[in-house]
Design a protein that fits this description.
heterodimer, A: alpha/beta, Rossmann fold, 15 helices, disordered N terminus, B: alpha+beta, Protein Transport Mog1p, Chain A, two-stranded antiparallel ribbon, 23% helix
Chain lengths: 341, 154
């Protein structure tokens, strides 16, 4: 258990500027905010969309330096701290920075053409190290080696460098974890290795779920995600994210909307490829997904396509995640502080 | 289970089982090199390859899926997926569901659709999808050549 002093220190260094529900709850528990103030703050989670129209230049791959700059811009807007290192220190609790493992959960299931960009993953790893995280305490992680390769990453278990491997190496818990309709075996990387996971999904249309982004990316932390696709993944996505280990460890998203598929996903559909050239950042996973959904709908409308609801696959799991049973965040646009930079 | 380096596809066609290797060897189609082993997924394991995309193929009666990587003239990288469906109707269903107004009908197999970076066609119970990772000049022409190479082996 943390001492109150440790807790206050973490809260003071990590949460004050964020204005997020998680940060507010942390402060409230530490006695630094009264409950009412915490609730007020909690009602208005912040989501940042940071864009750089020139991210791709003339090529198919994003410019690495521009991705790093975009990440810095997003983090500055989210935390209110201009210096990247200070921004990251304000997000990652001091106790984690000091010596615990931070997972970077990427998404490579769509194959090489539509997976979390290595430039983003490496940019975050770089900033975390500058903020004091030891390289070996950063673990880039997906389901298996092939998914990681799709993200431009290579398997590495050498603890002197940023590590990178999948659940095929780390394995799954023998016992099932349950919440609502979901009974799953969680990846040991999540349950045993990581103190905190930064979620790095890639924005995609999804044939079953409607949309895959922050919450849906957690399908990569279970052994049999194929068993969670019924009824457009509702309530499975919400139930999975409500499992305590997932809820408590995976609470910060740096969503990759550098490129996306706006129809025909989740696989790579070059004819439906789209370059939002953006990052979507936030702690409230429901608000992040709701925001991403609106981006997707705007693109579909531009392309003359029906809404996801009209296509029969609205991502209803987002509302489920916000309901009174799950309480994972908010999907009410009036209650989301959307900042676009 | 996933079978690696097995370059054959078995399809139930009538009473006989037709065994084919749909993947052209390196050099068999001018400029194209086969750059990976063939991976084969039974229907029950298809999710391991294409995650949520698997459902539409399962509903259309997919039997197995095989896939391999290719490279054209050492630069343009592409992926070839061959879905062996239970019957012609299954292949037709998938092809039709993926059709959009901006796709161009092409003469390959029984019916085909091409975009700048992809070609999809069906032949009998097979549904073939070829995708390039980059949009380069001449990509579509190169993909069509590879598509004809696959078609000839089905």
């Amino acid at each position: 258990m943390k001492s109150r002093r440790e807790f206050l220190k973490e809260a003071a260094t990590g949460a004050v500027l964020l204005g997020s529900s998680a940060a507010a709850e942390k402060l409230a528990r530490a006695g630094m905010l009264d409950t009412h103030a915490a609730q007020n703050t909690a009602r208005k989670p912040k989501v940042v969309i940071a864009r750089d129209a020139a991210l791709h230049g003339a090529g198919a791959h994003p410019d690495e330096q521009r991705v790093l700059n975009l990440l810095d811009k997003a983090m500055a807007a989210y935390t209110g701290r201009e210096k990247p290192v200070e921004a990251w220190k304000s997000v990652v609790p001091a106790s984690v920075l000091a010596g615990k493992v931070i997972g970077l959960k990427v998404n490579g299931l769509g194959g090489r053409g539509i997976s979390t960009h290595a430039a983003l993953t490496l940019a975050i790893a770089e900033r975390l190290q500058q903020a004091g995280v030891r390289a070996g305490n950063i673990l880039v992680w997906e389901r298996d080696a092939r998914s990681l390769e799709a993200c431009g990453m290579s398997v590495n278990t050498d603890p002197s460098r940023v590590r990178c491997y999948g659940n095929d190496v780390g394995g799954y818990e023998a016992e099932q974890s349950s919440w609502g309709t979901v009974n799953v075996r969680l990846a040991k990387i999540l349950t045993r290795e990581c103190a905190m996971v930064i979620n790095l999904p890639i924005l995609k249309d999804h044939d079953q779920a409607g949309l895959t982004f922050s919450m849906k990316n957690m399908y990569g932390v279970v052994e049999r995600p194929d068993q969670l696709h019924a009824n457009h993944c509702n309530p499975s996505v919400a139930d999975l994210n409500a499992i305590a280990t997932v809820r408590e460890k995976v609470w910060f998203t740096v969503g990759d909307a550098i490129s996306s598929v706006y129809d025909g996903g989740p696989g790579f559909r070059p004819e439906r490829l789209w370059y939002p050239n953006a990052l979507v950042v936030g702690e409230d996973r429901v608000a992040v997904d709701h925001t991403a959904w609106q981006l997707m709908e705007r693109k579909r409308a531009e392309a003359g396509m029906p809404t996801l609801e009209a296509a029969g696959r609205a991502p209803q799991y987002i509302a489920t995640a916000a309901d009174a049973a799950h309480r994972l965040g908010t999907c009410d646009p009036q209650r989301i502080r959307l900042v676009e930079v | 289970m996933v079978a690696f380096a097995i370059a054959v596809v078995a399809a139930g066609v009538g009473c006989k089982k037709k065994v084919v290797d749909p993947f052209p060897a390196s050099g068999a189609v001018a400029g194209w090199e086969k750059t990976s082993d063939t991976r084969v997924f039974a229907a029950k394991d298809l999710w391991q390859y294409i995650d949520g995309d698997a459902e539409q193929y399962l509903q259309a009666g997919v039997v197995s899926t095989s896939t391999s990587d290719y490279k054209y003239q050492g630069q343009l990288e592409a992926l070839v997926d061959v879905y062996t469906m239970g019957d012609v109707a299954g292949a037709r269903k998938i092809l039709e569901s993926g059709k959009t107004n901006d796709g161009k009908s092409v003469q390959v197999g029984d019916a085909g659709i091409a975009y700048a970076q992809s070609v999809t066609f069906r032949k009998g119970p097979y549904l073939v999808r070829i995708v390039a990772y980059e949009d380069t000049p001449g990509a579509q022409q190169a993909l069509m050549a590879l598509a004809h190479g696959v078609e000839a082996k089905l």
